[in-house]
Amino acid sequence: MKMRKIYMMVLTAITAVSLCGCGDMDETYKEFWQDGEIVYAGVVDSLTFHPGRNRAQISFKITDPSVDKVRIFWNNKQQNVETPVDPVNNQGPYVVDLPDMKESIYSFEAYSYNKKEDPSMAVSLVGRVYGSEYEKTLLITPMKTAEQDEQKPENFTITWGTPDATAIYSEVIYTDINDEVQTIEVPSSEKSTLIEGYKDGTGFSYRTVFMPDTLAIDKFYTAYKECVVRGTPKKIDRTGWTSTSTHDESKVRPATNAIDTNGSNEWVTSRNNTLPANEQYAIIDMKQKHRISGFYVKGRNNKDSMPKDGEFLVSNDGENWTSVLTFTLLKAAGEQLFDLEKDVEARYFKYVIKSSHDNKTMVAVLELGAYYR
């Protein structure tokens, strides 16, 4: 940018005053002449903020060949950094490091200077520096299952849930068959990940990685989550199981239908039920304690009267209950499995229907049971 000469504007104004014969010209305009012409250096161009972890970078270009340095101010000009420039040989981009910055939002002003210390007009910029407080808000990508291959036990598959929109990948750490620790990066767009050659009987851990901005210079991480590889689900034999339930449809289609060996029988809650959905439940007595890794539920194949939100509780005496799982059944045909966070041992389990997909009080369940891995 060429130097701006203010005196041309003043000269035009003086000429106009002279022609109209107005006022005392010397008294009015002598302030513009007492220090000679006012010269401004060319402003910085393409000023850009690059956020980081308790640090940042600011980049810019400079085209005025008379400029030999740039100063960047912040905190109401209480702090600044200066960098030399040589636009004759290098117009940039130049990069200025801002270390040891507190996590906050900052306003910056950049000025360029020529060899005579003539400053440019200010160019302003606002940027946010990130840190531990931001990192605390990050959500790890949920993992639905980590299931061992029954035919190849040295392999397992991770099935992922829906990631946060700003997550870029998850970092998975596991031990391979040679006792070596391996780390892989899984893109957030990936729905399932096959891990081959892991050491059977070992677990794994993962965390999710974020970049708060496409211009960020640092990555941010969730805490690691420790996980176990589960074997394929094995259904617990339902022979001899009994049930009690609320408001079966005239006792014609009781909850027992959902735990028998006839896959077409169904448990249907009362068509005239006046109870809200969250008070409908079935209690299953498995007759002995079992290790439980999860539960399965199957609705009607035509998806009519499908339960939706639900809860499983377990007990060893049929009176004192512990909640182990809340879940949402999809409105889809077929059996749906729901893993527990950790295995439990229990004789009884209770399935509570909290809502239905069509907001009816009557719901239908074809199959209901538990499994271990």
SSE order:
EHHEEEEEEEEHEEEEEEEEEEEEEEEEE
The count of domains is 4
Fill in the CATH topology of the largest domain. Answer: Jelly Rolls
Radius of gyration over C-alpha positions, nearest whole angstrom: 35 Å
- Largest sheet composition: 7 strands, antiparallel
CATH C-level label of the largest domain: Mainly Beta
Structure annotation, total helices: 3
Query: Which parts are unreliable, with pLDDT below 50 for 5 consecutive residues or more?
Result: 1-26, 28-34
CATH superfamily of the largest domain: Galactose-binding domain-like
Shape: elongated
Class by helix and strand content? mainly beta
What's the rounded overall pLDDT mean?
A: 86
Strand content: 35-45%
CATH architecture of the largest domain: Sandwich
Query: How helix-rich are the residues, as a percent range?
Result: under 10%
- Number of distinct beta strands: 26
Distance between the termini: 71 Å
How are the SSEs placed, and which strands pair?
Blueprint: E1 4-5, H1 7-20, H2 25-33, E2 39-40, E3 45-51, E4 56-61, E5 67-74, E6 79-84, E7 94-98, E8 104-114, E9 123-129, H3 132-136, E10 143-148, E11 156-160, E12 167-175, E13 181-187, E14 192-195, E15 204-210, E16 220-221, E17 225-227, E18 234-235, E19 242-245, E20 267-268, E21 280-298, E22 309-315, E23 322-328, E24 335-353, E25 364-365, E26 367-372
Helix pairs in contact: 1-2
